[in-house]
């Protein structure tokens, strides 16, 4: 799933290559991705792209007086092309869901929104105000906008496990499964620690890890072509999706806890005092 660094890089790419261009045509290959009815997507035709930004993991493309809001979910992606085919895509055929022509079709650039797999989550909204999107309206503060004191306040009182608190967007916006694994590994904290019960030194390590992991990832990602962002993300990960491989810090084997639809990775030596976490949803440290 694209997280804060990748969405920031996509926004930067559109700012550099899309701003000043006019939406010539939009092709909708999958109506299910469009979550708003009014204004219709045709309302964007003829309007100029004036900016791009993000709200947590939501991409915001500013088109005239409207906002094209995109959430790429788990398997969605934005593919930029210097020239897009003028032939409208066939509905329901392949991963292509939504196409934006930023120039004459067949002659100008633009981007496709695609989604792999059978579990669909890619979503698009066309709104006058980003806060009309329920997910944006419910977002907590941005992970990179928090001061240390604000960060402590946000986590204070929460009884969620730390892994869940970091990835719950209404608590902190922008962090997903991959970077939360990396943050917790750098901070040397258990994913099952209680978010609201961390000691001051643990909070210091966690805050600095959030800043370091996300800032480094943004710096690596911004300037990359959209097609290379996934590979860039994978290359910078130390524990996420590295089950069975040696921890780059201590050499212990990276372990995994699996749930019904996702998994996280950690190093027992670095994060849990050498004790493996039981691999079930309501796990506690094995004794």
Automatic annotation (TrEMBL):
**What does the entry give for GO biological process?**
base-excision repair
| Domain of life assignment | Bacteria
SMART domains per record: Fapy_DNA_glyco, H2TH
Q: Where is the FPG-type domain?
A: 238-272
Give this protein's Gene Ontology molecular function annotations.
8-oxo-7,8-dihydroguanine DNA N-glycosylase activity; class I DNA-(apurinic or apyrimidinic site) endonuclease activity; damaged DNA binding; zinc ion binding
Per its record, the protein catalyses:
Hydrolysis of DNA containing ring-opened 7-methylguanine residues, releasing 2,6-diamino-4-hydroxy-5-(N-methyl)formamidopyrimidine
Keywords, alphabetical: DNA damage, DNA repair, DNA-binding, Glycosidase, Hydrolase, Lyase, Metal-binding, Multifunctional enzyme, Zinc, Zinc-finger
Q: Which InterPro entries match?
A: FPG_cat, FPG_N, H2TH_FPG, Ribosomal_uS13-like_H2TH, Znf_DNA_glyclase/AP_lyase, Znf_FPG/IleRS
- What EC number(s) does the entry state? 3.2.2.23, 4.2.99.18
Cofactor dependence is on: Zn(2+)
Please state every residue range assigned to the domain named Formamidopyrimidine-DNA glycosylase catalytic.
2-93
Tell me its family: Belongs to the FPG family.
The name under which this protein is listed is Formamidopyrimidine-DNA glycosylase
Instruction: Please tell me the species this chain comes from.
Output: Actinophytocola algeriensis
């Amino acid at each position: 799933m694209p997280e804060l660094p990748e969405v920031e890089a996509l926004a930067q790419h559109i700012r550099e290559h899309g701003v000043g261009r006019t939406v010539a045509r939009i092709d909708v290959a999958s109506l299910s991705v469009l979550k708003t009815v009014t204004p219709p997507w045709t309302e964007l035709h003829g309007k100029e792209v004036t900016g791009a930004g993000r709200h947590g993991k939501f991409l915001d493309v500013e088109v005239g007086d409207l906002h094209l809001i995109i959430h790429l979910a788990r398997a969605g992606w934005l593919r930029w092309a210097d020239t897009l085919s003028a032939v409208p895509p066939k509905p329901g055929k392949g991963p292509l869901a939504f196409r934006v022509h930023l120039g004459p079709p067949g002659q100008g650039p633009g981007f496709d929104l695609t989604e792999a797999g059978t579990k669909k989550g890619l979503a698009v909204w066309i709104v006058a105000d980003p806060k009309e999107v329920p997910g944006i309206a419910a977002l907590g503060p941005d992970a990179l906008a928090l001061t240390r004191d604000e960060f402590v306040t946000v986590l204070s009182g929460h009884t969620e496990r730390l892994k869940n608190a970091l990835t719950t967007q209404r608590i902190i916006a922008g962090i997903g499964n991959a970077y939360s694994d990396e943050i917790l590994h750098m901070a040397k904290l258990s994913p099952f620690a209680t978010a609201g019960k961390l000691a001051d030194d643990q909070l210091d390590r966690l805050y600095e890890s959030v800043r370091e992991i996300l800032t480094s990832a943004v710096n690596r990602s911004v300037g990359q072509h959209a097609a290379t962002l996934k590979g860039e993300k994978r290359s910078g990960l130390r524990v996420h999706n590295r089950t069975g491989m040696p921890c780059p810090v201590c050499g212990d084997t990276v372990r995994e806890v699996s749930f019904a639809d996702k998994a996280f990775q950690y190093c027992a030596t670095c994060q849990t005092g050498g004790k493996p976490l039981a691999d079930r949803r309501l796990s506690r440290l094995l004794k």
